[in-house]
Amino acid sequence: MLRVKSFRNVVRNYKVVFFDAFGVLKSHRGLIPNIKSTFEYLERKGILYYVLTNDSSRSPEELSRWYVGHGLECITTDKILSSGMLAMEFFQTKLHDGNAVGYLGTRASAHYLETAGLKTVSICDIDLDNLDHIESFAFLDDEGFDWNVDINKTINLLRKKNMNVVVANTDKNYPINKNDISVAIGGLADLVEKILGKKFIRFGKPDAQMFALAYERALQDIDIKRNEILMVGDTLFTDIIGGNKFGMDTALVLSGNTLPEMAAVRIKSSGIIPTYVCESAVIES
Amino acid sequence: MLRVKSFRNVVRNYKVVFFDAFGVLKSHRGLIPNIKSTFEYLERKGILYYVLTNDSSRSPEELSRWYVGHGLECITTDKILSSGMLAMEFFQTKLHDGNAVGYLGTRASAHYLETAGLKTVSICDIDLDNLDHIESFAFLDDEGFDWNVDINKTINLLRKKNMNVVVANTDKNYPINKNDISVAIGGLADLVEKILGKKFIRFGKPDAQMFALAYERALQDIDIKRNEILMVGDTLFTDIIGGNKFGMDTALVLSGNTLPEMAAVRIKSSGIIPTYVCESAVIES
Amino acid sequence: MLRVKSFRNVVRNYKVVFFDAFGVLKSHRGLIPNIKSTFEYLERKGILYYVLTNDSSRSPEELSRWYVGHGLECITTDKILSSGMLAMEFFQTKLHDGNAVGYLGTRASAHYLETAGLKTVSICDIDLDNLDHIESFAFLDDEGFDWNVDINKTINLLRKKNMNVVVANTDKNYPINKNDISVAIGGLADLVEKILGKKFIRFGKPDAQMFALAYERALQDIDIKRNEILMVGDTLFTDIIGGNKFGMDTALVLSGNTLPEMAAVRIKSSGIIPTYVCESAVIES
Amino acid sequence: MLRVKSFRNVVRNYKVVFFDAFGVLKSHRGLIPNIKSTFEYLERKGILYYVLTNDSSRSPEELSRWYVGHGLECITTDKILSSGMLAMEFFQTKLHDGNAVGYLGTRASAHYLETAGLKTVSICDIDLDNLDHIESFAFLDDEGFDWNVDINKTINLLRKKNMNVVVANTDKNYPINKNDISVAIGGLADLVEKILGKKFIRFGKPDAQMFALAYERALQDIDIKRNEILMVGDTLFTDIIGGNKFGMDTALVLSGNTLPEMAAVRIKSSGIIPTYVCESAVIES
C-alpha cells in the first residue's frame, strides 16, 4: 500500500522546493485552503521556493499578480517560471527583425511576447495571401479565437508556408470546475500537428527545459545540486516523471489531478514513482 | 518506375466496380470532367458499379440527388453505400426504445437517422444535468455546431455518462478548394477520444465493414467473388489498403489525393500496393 | 455497480453463440474447468456455436484436434474460425503462381498455408540477394526463428523489396502462465512496422473481417440476423468492441484477461460496454 | 529550392560547435573522409567543439579511444557528451546503496555504470523470484543478450516489480552497412513500454537534457550564449529540432541519414527547419 507522509516532514529536508501551480497551490475555486501557512513555514525555515507552470496565457507578472491578489504576497514575479517564458526566449533568439509571430490565443497571451519587443499577429488578422512577414507561429491559449474558423485557417497557413511552430503549453486539457474539463491549447496543437504530419516545438513540463529554467533561476539565489531540490506536483506524467528525470526528488500531492483512491494504481500502472506521496502541500501552522 | 495503365484496359476485365467518390468521381469543383462517359462505357459493357463513401453528413438519397443534379442520373440511391448507413444500422440494433442518440453535426446529418425512426438530440440541446434518455453518441458532421462550446460539452457529456460512441466518418480532413483543407469530423473525434482515453466505434474505409456492406449489395445483383471486383480510389490509406485486405483488386487513380508526381514514392514508403495505377477513372468516349 | 448475470440466463435467448478461445474456453492450464457442460447445454437447447480465435500458429484442423484431445469432441474443424484463415484467403487471392510468401514463424504455421497450395519460405532461408520469387510476407508466429537475427533480416527484406505484408494475428502479447506473458507476433509486427514507417495488413479481432467470416459460416447453418448472435469474450478491446460494432450482442466473461475486480473500472475508462457481464461461460449441469 | 552553403562559411561565424557523431563525423565504414581537416580548421580558428551522441553502449573514454585510434587525436574524452552519461547521472542520484540496476545490453555497456560505483545485473543473471536488490532498470545496448528469452524476461520483471526504467539511447534503429539497418535498443524499449503500458525515462537527443549537458560543459571552457553555438547533425528529428528548441543555430549535413535528394521534401513535410544546409561537415584544407 501507498505510504503517505506529512508534507512538513518531507519538505524540511530540502533547501529548495519547486511547486506546480494547478492542483498544488490553486484550483478552479482559488487558492488551496491554508496553503499560505506552507509559505510561512518555508520562509521561517529559510527554504527557497519557485513555481513552475505550463501556462502561456499570461505573463509571469500577471501570474504573480493573481497570487498577490489572493493573499500570497510572497509569490513575486521572480518566483514564477512558465512555459510561456521559454516560448518568448525561443522567439527572441530565432525571429528576424521586422518579422512577426502568428498565434492562436488571446490578445493578453500575445501581449506578453510584445513586451519583449516581438511583433505578433493573431490568426484572425493574418492575410493568407500575404505571409511575407509571418516567420513563426505560436499556440498560446485556447481562448480568444473562433475554433471553427481559426483552427482551419491555422492548418492552411502552415500548409502554405513552412515555419517554426511553438506550442507554449503542453497540457491537453484543464479543469474548469469540480466536474468538467476543457480542451487546452496543447490538445488543439496535437490535432493540428497530426493533420499536417509536421513536428512542432513544445515547451512545458515534463520537458527538461522547463526544469532547467527553474534550476538556473535557483542557482542565482543559492548554490545547490539538483538532488537537493524537491519537485512538488499533482500529475505523474508531467511534474513527477519530469522531476525524476531531471535528477530531483519528487513529491506527489493528492489535492489535484491524482485522486487519493487512484494514486497507488496509477503509480503502479504508469511506472512513474514519486519519491514521496503527500496528501497536499499544506502545512498547518 | 510506376507503370500507369488506361482505366478502360483495366476495368473491362471486371464484372463489378466499386468507386470512391471524392477525388475519383467528384472534386470541390463538381463532377470530374468527362466522368459521365465512364458510366456510359460501364453500362454498355454490362459492368455493375457502386459508390463507397465515408460520408455521414447526408443520406444516400441526398448523395444520389447531388449526382443526378449534376447530370449523372445513373447514380441512384441503391448504388450508394456510405459510412452513415453503417452508423444507422448500428443504432437501429443497439438503441433501446424511447432513447436518443446525442450528436455533433448538422440537423441534416441527424435527419437521416430520424428517417429510420431513431430519436436524436444535437449536442447544443442536451442538458448535461438530465442525461437519462441519451443512450449513445454520434460524430456525424464537422458543421452545425460551435466548436469552442460544443466540443468541450461533448467531452463532459461522455465523462458524465458512459455510452457507445460512433464516429460515422473516419476521415481526418477534406479539401475545400484547390489549396485548402478543413478538419473533418473524424479529426475532431480523434481529439475527443484522446482526451477522454476512451475507445470509439469507427465506420468507414479502410474498415472491412464498409466493403462488406457494398459486397452484400452487389451480391443482390450478381453472383460474384471478391477478387472479381475492382475497387477504384484516390487514397492509399483508405481505398487501396482496405480493398486489398478485403480480397479485391485495386486501382489507384491520380485525380485526387495522390498527386501523379508523388504516387511512386507514396506506394514505396507506405508499402500499400495497388494492383493498378491509372491517371483517372475517366474513359473518353 | 456492475451487474453480473448467469451465463445460462444470457445465452438461452440466442440462436447462435460465438466464443473467443483463450480466457473463455481454455487457459494456459488447459480447458476451463467444467466448460464441457456448457456445450452439452447448448446442444440440448439447439443453440449453434463457433469459436473465433486470433491464432495463426496452427491450422483449424490442429486447433480442433486440441479441443478433441482435451475431451471437447464437439469443437470440430468447421466450428473454428481463425485469423490464420483470413491470411490464407488473402494469399490465395493475391499471390501469383510460382511466387512464395516469406514468413516469420514456425514451420507448422507455414505448413497450414502450404496445405492450400501456397509456397512459403522461412525468413531464415531467404536470400536477400535473390528476392525475385518472394512476393508477399506474413507474420505468423512468435516462435520458430532467432529474434536477434531474423527481425532485423525481415526489416531489411522489406526495405529491399516493397510487398504486401500480412500480420495474421493482431494480439500484442499472450499469457504463458498464471503470472507471466510473452510478446506475440502482433507485437513484433508493430515494432517492424514502426521502424519501416509502412502500413501492414492485419487480420483478427476486433477487425470486422473476422466476425464477417464467422457470420458467413453461421449463415450456412442457419438463417440468422447479426443481433440474434451473442459474442462471448474476455477482452474488451477485441471481442467486445468488435462484436458491438458488428451489430451483435456481447457478453464479457471474467475468467480471463479482465479480472473481476477491474471490470467495472475498465468498462468505464474504455467506454467499451458489453451487453452483459458474466462470471464465466461455464453452465454447471 | 534548398540553398546549400559551404560548411566553412557557416561555421566560422560561431565560437562553439556541437557535432552529432554518426552521419557527421563517422559512418559504418569509419571516419567520414577528410573530416580531420575540419578539426584542423577549427583549432586554427579557435572554435571550440564537442561531440553529442545518443550512445550508451560505451563509455566516453571508449568512444574517444575510437576517434583517437582512427587518427582524430583531438576528440578527447572531455569533448564527448553521451546519453549514457545522463543515464549514469540518473542512477547515481536515484539508486540507494546496496541496490543494483538490471539491464539489457552488453557487459561493456554496464561496465561504464560500474566505473561510477554502481552495481549492475544483466537481465540474463536476474532471478525473477528474488528481486529485492534490483531497484532500477536500464536499456543500454541491443547486443549482449538473447532477444527471444530476455525481452520477455524484462517484461515480466517489470510486471513483477515497479521501478524506474531508463532508456539510455532514444534511437530506434541504426545503419550497419550501406543498405541495411538494425533495431536499436530504443526500438526494443518502445516495444516493451507499449506492451507494459508504462512510461520510461528516455535520455538522448532531441531531448533538452542532452543539449543542456553539452552546454554546461562548454560553459566550463568559454562564456557563451546558446545562440552563439552551432549544432551540426544529419537527422532532422533529433539534432535539428532539438538544437532549434534549445535556442542554438543548426546546420543539417547531407552526409548521413538525410539524403541530398530528399532534404527539401523532408524539411517541408516535417516542418523542422535547419538554419543552414551543408553538403557535409568536411572543410577541405
UniProtKB/TrEMBL annotation, chains A, B, C, D:
Gene3D superfamilies given in the database record: HAD superfamily/HAD-like (3.40.50.1000)
Pfam families: Hydrolase_6, Hydrolase_like
GO cellular component: cytoplasm
Domain of life of the native organism: Bacteria
InterPro entries in the cross-refs: HAD-like_sf (IPR036412), HAD-SF_hydro_IIA (IPR006357), HAD_sf (IPR023214)
Entry GO MF terms: phosphatase activity
Keywords of the record: Hydrolase
UniProt-recorded name of the protein: HAD-superfamily class IIA hydrolase, TIGR01459
Species the sequence originates in: Mariniphaga anaerophila
